[in-house]
Amino acid sequence: MTITITIGGVHKGGVGKTTAAITVGHGLALAGYTVLIVDLDAQGHVAYYLGLERRPMIYRLLVDREPIKKCVLMARSPNLCIVPSDASTAMAQEKLVTMRFNELRLKQALAPLQGGPNLVILDTAPGAGALHDAAMGASDYVLAVVEASTASLDGLSLLTQTIGEFRGAGHPVGLLGIIPMMLDDRTLASQDAMEALHHAQDGLAPVYPGVHRATIFQRSVSDGRTIWEVDPTSRTRATAEYSAVIRRLLEDLDP
Ligand SMILES: Nc1ncnc2c1ncn2[C@@H]1O[C@H](COP(=O)(O)OP(=O)(O)O)[C@@H](O)[C@H]1O
Ligand SMILES: [Mg+2]
Fold this sequence. Notes:
Layout: E1 3-8, H1 17-30, E2 35-39, H2 45-49, H3 57-62, H4 68-71, E3 73-74, E4 80-83, H5 88-98, H6 102-110, E5 119-123, H7 130-138, E6 141-147, H8 150-168, E7 174-183, H9 188-200, E8 211-212, H10 216-223, H11 227-230, H12 237-253
Parallel strand pairs: 1-5, 1-6, 2-4, 2-5, 6-7, 7-8
Antiparallel strand pairs: 3-4
Adenosine-5'-diphosphate is lined by residues 13-19, 45, 126, 181-182, 211, 213-214, 217-218, 221.
């Protein structure tokens, strides 16, 4: 069975969503799972962070209606593939708005993947929009990434509301959990935010193991390598923390 997850849901940029998509995706691929990451952001960071070229595959998939198998590129081994994006994804989103049944387009385009990869990860752009809705409509679950500051927790109520609307419309998307990102033990704001998160999410969605702020992520971006490649012997806190996120995901999903 193929499980589809949207990473994001909270309409804020720079919180570590794309990093989570590729770090979790590559970590699972290294553990033997087959993973496809679909980049729904016109910034094209999925390809860029993996050291690959941006490509107009989302436009081809959604506007030109090319079959998904023609839009998939191998990123590392056959275990880790991506559907890369580039600036044309912004145009695809504009066109999508004017199409009928637009919120079903992505779901339909991804349907042939059923029974293929163990996991499909949809990485979304900051901000609400047609592609974000399309991602929710194509997903079994949402995994939210929130920056550990009280301000960014605001976005969570909007997310639970959106999920409620999708469920009300008959699409059973679930909130898998919330990953607190960019934790900083030295700042009170970060500690307050964690407390507020546990309090606000009590019984609503599980709080996943968090990931601290670390310089390895910037290095990883500038090298076009994932943290598993920058630190192959997993000696950093970042790799230990992301390993915990992946273990938790495997417990929850059993893919
Ligand atoms: N835990 C972290 N600590 C420090 N920097 C991080 C962390 N996670 C991601 N980053 C960095 O923050 C920047 C934004 O991350 P990104 O994943 O692109 O965010 P988003 O997709 O939410 O816009 C990138 O330069 C990335 O390397
Ligand atoms: Mg991103």
